[in-house]
């Protein structure tokens, strides 16, 4: 089970994030038993989790205990993780140190994440706020230059990898059936369910044009049959009676 310690202002987007990362989770509760704790607060709640992931750019007590300092970059930046680029749109922090880091800032190659272990607990410190980044992606979107980067999926992939590399299995509902690369969903929409609601407006005029002139043109091009022509012209002729309530609104 994953416990999430987030500020109240982040809880809505945290819930939306886990609609995409479909794995068991809940907001942190005192006394709760969690395998993983994700925290975006400055104060980490007491916990017995085997793995703690601390997201944020402000200095944390953990930084001091680990003997590192954080460098704040207010303009965001580009991270590199296993050869994949992850844009950061909010604040970004990089950390001092020469240890191996799986996530680095692209231009400076400074670590944007580091791990420490003690007493059978592993703590990952990640230099951005996961849920603020998710909110930006869901509400504002990305610039065209980054349109080819599946940024939110990469945030999920990074989180998933940090969990599994710590030896904790993830029970997850995949977005596609097992053994397949993608899934297709066929849908349709109904723009105007009630024609009586549209009197002498563009919707009514458009209907009349498509049912009469448009259908004749389609018959001439071989796109529709004479049966279609009869049905559509009959519908157009019933239009006045529909507005009078004397005919069924088709």
Task: Please characterize this protein's 3D structure.
The protein is of the alpha/beta class. It has two domains: 2-164, Class I glutamine amidotransferase (GATase) domain (Rossmann fold, 3-Layer(aba) Sandwich), CATH 3.40.50; 195-243, no CATH class. It has helices at 11-20, 61-66, 130-139, 151-164, 202-221, 226-243, and strands spanning 2-5, 25-27, 36-39, 51-55, 70-73, 77-81, 84-88, 92-95, 103-105, 113-118, 121-126. The protein has a six-stranded mixed β-sheet. It has a three-stranded antiparallel β-sheet with strand order 7-6-9, with helices on one face. A hairpin with a 2-residue loop joins strand 6 (77-81) and strand 7 (84-88). Helix 1 (11-20) packs across helix 3 (130-139) and helix 5 (202-221) runs antiparallel to helix 6. The radius of gyration is 28 Å and the shape is elongated. The two termini are 52 Å apart. The relative contact order is 0.11. The mean pLDDT is 91.
């Amino acid at each position: 089970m994953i416990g999430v310690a987030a500020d109240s202002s982040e809880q809505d987007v945290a819930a939306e994030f886990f609609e995409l990362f479909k794995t068991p989770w809940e907001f942190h509760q005192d006394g709760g038993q969690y395998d993983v704790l994700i925290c975006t607060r400055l104060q980490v709640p007491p916990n017995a989790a085997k793995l703690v992931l601390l997201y944020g750019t402000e200095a944390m007590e953990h930084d001091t205990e680990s003997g590192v300092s954080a460098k704040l970059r207010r303009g965001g930046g580009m991270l590199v993780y296993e050869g994949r680029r992850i844009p950061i749109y909010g604040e970004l922090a990089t950390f001092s140190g020469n240890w191996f880091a799986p996530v680095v800032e692209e231009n400076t190659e400074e670590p944007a994440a580091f791990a420490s272990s003690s007493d059978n607990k592993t703590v990952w410190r990640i230099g951005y706020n996961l849920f603020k980044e998710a909110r930006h992606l869901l509400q504002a979107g990305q610039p065209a230059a980054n349109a080819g980067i599946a940024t939110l999926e990469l945030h999920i992939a990074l989180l998933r990898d940090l969990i599994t590399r710590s030896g904790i299995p993830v029970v997850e509902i995949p977005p596609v059936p097992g053994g397949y690369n993608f899934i297709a969903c066929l849908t349709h929409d109904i723009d105007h369910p009630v024609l009586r609601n549209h009197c002498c407006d563009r919707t009514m005029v458009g209907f009349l044009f498509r049912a009469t002139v448009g259908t004749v043109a389609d018959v001439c091009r071989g796109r529709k049959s004479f049966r279609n022509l009869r049905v559509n012209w009959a519908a157009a002729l019933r239009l006045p009676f529909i507005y009078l309530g004397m005919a069924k609104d088709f």
